[in-house]
Design a protein that fits this description.
alpha+beta, nucleus, five-stranded mixed β-sheet, RNase_H2_suB_wHTH, 426 residues, Rnh202_N, RNase_H2_suB, three-stranded antiparallel β-sheet, N-terminal domain of TfIIb, single chain
């Protein structure tokens, strides 16, 4: 019988097959229009009148998103992102009321899939940081030394903020929000009454005091994350190690004739033997750090530790919400006794001494490495000289040999008997 050859499907046939399989599938995905949705976690105390708006960021004046509630105040969004190496997504189910309505219609629960696993959490913030760039504009400008700073109204300061992509004019229509902003302005400004209107002028001591109070609550309330405290407080104040002494463990006590030499002579009975075995097992399970005494050059006092925590907390607040120019201006006001009398002199002295000790440790370590390298070089040079002397001695020995001796060395004596075998006793 003639053989038949199977032919491959054409492109049109494959397209028809794919379209038929897609039309016969149980679920179909609709095309996505616009930007993908994002997941926000909002506070429970925020009312239904709260809105997500755009305002200039107080540090770099770029547009940023905030949640503003007329009843509870301002909130900033903190982004929690998943690592790029582990892609994740969110599967969100609709609310109970929506589920009931959807079940009545289709008989199935509806949900939503968000391909981006980023999470935005709304946390409360002080709105005075949003107004600080406009308030401090006249204080940090170069011409402020020649100009006398004047009292201005709240609207004058609001107009100094960037208006591009800003919804500030809209939220100022809310009476409670406007009253909150003016109250926070009064907390860091000197005020005078001009008729029915209050005039404001930024005070350096009040602004520095307000930021310092927030830093104290952050430092004293154990709010600093453990990773930040370990990196910027503990390790920053740690002095170079001078010596490490390993403390003797109980299992390493010397025994002589069944007696433990520990001050009192005790017969080593069976029960004592089992107790000592259990004790040695427990001590061997402990970490090496617990049995090692570290001797450091200097150790920080409690006052120095508290001052370092306060400085780290203050720098953390300024690094997030205050521009570098205003941060420098606020730090100048910290030395004022009216602010709170914070004296960082003990911390500065300790840090200066610590810098000297670290420099000495680095220098001594480099000298030690140099001396060890020099010793290794000398040993290698001595080995090379010794090898060279051996080669020269061998050359001299070969040169002193006669021609007959050299020829005899070339003779194959593997099958010959030794000369001493002829003089043995028979």
């Amino acid at each position: 019988m003639p053989r038949t050859r199977s032919s491959k499907p054409t492109a049109t046939e494959s397209q028809e097959t794919e379209s038929a399989s897609l039309s016969s599938s149980k679920f179909s995905l609709s095309e996505r229009n616009g930007s993908p949705p994002k997941l926000f976690i909002l506070p429970k105390k925020a009312t239904s009148e709260a809105k997500i708006i755009t305002l200039p960021h107080p540090r770099h004046t770029k547009p940023a998103r905030y949640l503003v509630c007329p009843e509870t105040g301002f909130y900033e969004f903190t982004k929690i992102a998943a690592p790029k190496s582990a892609p994740r997504s969110w599967l969100i189910e609709t609310s109970a009321k929506a589920v009931e309505s959807e079940e009545d219609k289709d008989g199935a629960t509806q949900g939503q899939l968000i391909s981006n696993a980023d999470l935005f959490v709304a946390t409360s913030m002080d709105p005075l940081f949003l107004l600080l760039p406009a308030l401090a504009d006249s204080c940090i400008s170069k011409s402020s030394e020649d100009k006398k700073r004047l009292f201005l109204s709240s609207d004058d300061y609001f107009d100094k903020l960037p208006e591009e992509a800003s919804h500030l004019s809209e939220i100022l229509r809310w009476e409670k929000t406007r009253a909150l902003l003016e109250a926070r302005m009064a907390a860091i400004c000197d005020t005078v009454e001009a008729g029915d209107e209050t005039m404001f002028r930024l005070s350096q001591e009040k602004a520095a005091s307000a930021c310092l109070q927030k830093a104290r609550r952050l430092a004293q309330g154990n709010v600093l994350p453990p990773s930040l405290e370990s990196q910027f407080v503990t390790k920053a104040l740690q002095a170079p190690v001078l010596n490490q002494k390993r403390a003797p463990l109980p299992s390493e006590s010397q025994t002589t004739n069944g007696v433990i030499e520990s001050g009192e002579s005790t017969p080593l009975t069976e029960s004592n033997d089992s107790q000592s075995t259990a004790m040695s097992t427990e001590t061997s399970a402990t970490s090496v750090d617990e049995s090692t005494e570290v001797e450091q050059a200097i150790r920080p006092s409690h006052e120095v530790m508290d001052l370092q925590k306060l400085r780290v907390a203050f720098d953390l607040i300024c690094a997030r919400l205050v521009s570098p120019a205003i941060t420098k201006w606020l730090k100048e006001g910290l030395s004022d006794e009216r602010v709170g009398g914070v004296d960082f002199a003990p911390l500065d002295e300790y840090l200066a001494k610590l810098a000297e000790l670290r420099a000495e440790a680095v220098a001594s370590r480099s000298m030690g490495d140099y001396s060890q390298k020099r010793l290794r070089d000398e040993e290698e040079e001595e080995a090379r000289e010794q090898k060279k002397r051996k080669l020269e001695e061998e050359k001299k020995k070969k040169a002193s040999e006669s021609r007959g001796v050299r020829e005899l060395k070339k003779v194959n004596t593997s099958g010959m008997m030794k000369l001493s075998s002829f003089f043995q006793k028979k």
